[in-house]
Amino acid sequence: MKVSYHGHSVVKIETNGKTILIDPFINGNELTDLKAEDEQPDVIILTHGHNDHVGDTVELAKKNDSLVIANHELATYLSWQLVKTHPMHVGGAYEFDFGKVKFTQAFHGSGLITDGNEIIYMGMPAGLLLFIEGKTIYHAGDTGLFSDMKLIGERHPIDLAFLPIGDNFTMGPEDAAEAARFLKPKKVVPVHYNTFPPIKQDPHKFVEMLDGCEGQVMSAGDVIEY
Ligand code: NI
Ligand code: MN
Fold it and tell me: Per the database record, which ranges form the Metallo-beta-lactamase domain (predicted)?
């Protein structure tokens, strides 16, 4: 399995000939190395309805006949745009052909902001647990720190965790380091920083704050192989 990072919260997983994209915010993401026209995801998984996470989902899914996994409200909205969807919600897990996905809680918003000065309700935001090839990957989505991260880590020993560190909209570096103490993953990768001026952070400082787990700063395009 190949797990790669592509700027902001974009993570790609390649497993058994399938490509999974999480939060494919490509156009407008100045930190990504991806080009939307080159991506051919079989599956897209969304943590919440904010534009910097839904990103290019509709265009990608239509072009590649991708399955989009998202919370019920967001999945329903996308299905109206003739995208193939699988709705889920916080606390629920489902076995797909590429592995198991479980939606976990996240403390954040999830409204989709339209061009017409409207915010459309898109249900609750989520984090993701992915059980693939015997490994457990946690993508926290956008969230503040919450103590039930202890429960998530205890019940599902995590090999690799993607945690937001940008501050302002999500956890900052100190809270994310505390999240890592709660979750006890083998490895942590910081995400959701430096994309916009209010979330400017030094990821190396975050990694220095970690104790008890390995931190890895990934540049766009970097790969972790399992
Ligand atoms: Ni967000
Ligand atoms: Mn975000």
Answer: 7-192
